[in-house]
Design a protein that fits this description.
Elements: H1 2-14, H2 16-33, H3 37-48, H4 54-58, H5 62-70, H6 73-77, H7 80-86, H8 89-100, H9 106-114, H10 119-129, H11 139-165, H12 174-187, H13 219-232, H14 234-244, H15 253-269, H16 274-280, H17 284-303, H18 315-332, H19 338-369
Length: 370
């Protein structure tokens, strides 16, 4: 059901005509129920979570609300962090979209995006504009506030990644130089770098003698992503690096990695990554894992072409195909952190081996019985 709603919502928000029809539908529902879409989403989630009985809540005024909360063990027992985690990703995603496409909430959305103002103030204004009953302490208010906290985290992550992407590589900065050397050592641990400016850099996929010039597009984020992949998912990175050095179907490992950084950052900036972040967490590590997932999947995509094998001349066309494929995965929510994807594949492989072993044992047993 969650996937169905996501597909429908994505289709609606991508089509001006469907969006206009949807807004008309919302106006009709608002006219008949006297409630806003945002309130209905939060109210439905509060019921599904068992946070309050709507009829009892609506019959209470603010002075009675505290007593009602005391009687509600679910709400009382959950910390703010637990409340945030209890709200399904789809609910947060729908609240995010509702705010994003609401002209009435343009100021509040900008405050979230720019990290200006307090979240409780933003929540209060949204509740006033959208006709929420009760206060921020009400179950429906808690759903909104907890969701806003998670939405705010995604904007904060975007700011953090954008700052890193806009930070130029500085060859006079010893920290930057150490990071570059770390990448070399991670990929080529048994080969010593002859000098800072050398053709050796081409061996790991840079274009010239000085890798600093290749980071102009994505700044230090491009380097950070390559280092995270090479040092965190060593087996995957070495497999990908080895594929990139194939005598026929080779590709420049570092340059492709920077291109993948651009894809990952673009997905973050355009908010295509929202559901992924709401499901797995809106922090730097989750973004890093998304990058690693993209690079691992790109290599699988590249080497899957066997007849004929791809060459570097095919890169531009095939990379466009790969990006379309990844956009579809984002829409259908197949995307996951690489660490989770690798574990899923390990379990699948283990299950397959067990099934094969069982089949062989049964075959042997039948032969003996005969």
């Amino acid at each position: 059901m969650s996937l169905f709603w996501i597909l429908i919502l994505n289709r609606i928000y991508q089509s001006p005509f469907l969006l206009a029809v949807y807004k008309f539908y919302k106006s009709c529902v608002h006219f008949t129920t006297m409630t806003s879409e945002l309130y209905r989403i939060c109210n439905s989630a509060a019921h599904q979570l068992g946070w309050y009985n709507e009829l009892e809540f609506l019959n209470n005024d603010d002075s009675e609300l505290d007593e009602e909360q005391e009687k509600s063990p679910l709400i009382k027992s959950l910390s703010s962090e637990e409340q945030m985690g209890a709200i399904p990703p789809l609910v947060v995603y729908r609240i995010d979209r509702s705010i994003l496409f609401s002209k009435q909430l343009d100021t509040e959305r900008r405050n979230l995006e720019n990290q200006s103002g307090q979240l409780d103030e933003v929540a209060e204004m949204i509740m006033i504009k959208k006709g929420f009953a009760g206060s921020e302490k009400s179950p429906v208010g808690r759903v909104l506030c907890s969701s806003l906290s998670r939405i705010s985290e995604t904007y904060s992550l975007t700011i953090q990644i954008n700052e890193r992407a806009s930070t130029k590589y500085d060859s006079t900065n010893p920290i930057h130089e150490q990071k570059l050397l770390k990448l070399w050592n991670a990929l080529m641990p048994e080969t010593e770098l002859e000098s800072r400016l050398t053709r050796q850099w081409a061996e790991i996929g840079f274009q010239g003698n000085d890798p600093a010039t290749d980071f102009r597009g994505m700044g230090l984020q491009g380097l950070d992503d390559l280092i995270y992949y090479a040092t965190t998912h060593t087996d995957s990175a070495q497999r990908t690096f080895s594929s990139s050095r194939h005598p026929v179907s080779w590709y420049p490992f570092a340059i492709v990695g920077i291109n993948i950084t651009q894809c990952a950052v673009q997905a973050l900036r355009t908010r295509q990554l929202q559901y992924y972040l709401y499901k797995y967490g809106a922090d730097k590590k989750t973004y890093n894992e998304f990058y690693c997932y993209l690079y691992h999947k790109f290599n699988d995509f590249w080497i899957s072409h066997q007849e004929p094998k791809l060459t570097v001349m095919d890169f531009e066309m095939k990379f466009k195909e790969f990006k379309i494929q990844m956009n579809k995965e984002l829409i259908t929510h197949e995307t996951m952190p690489l660490v989770d994807w690798l574990e899923m594949k390990r379990i699948e492989q283990q299950h397959l081996e067990n099934e094969n072993r069982k089949a062989i044992e049964e075959e042997k047993s039948s032969i003996v019985n005969e």
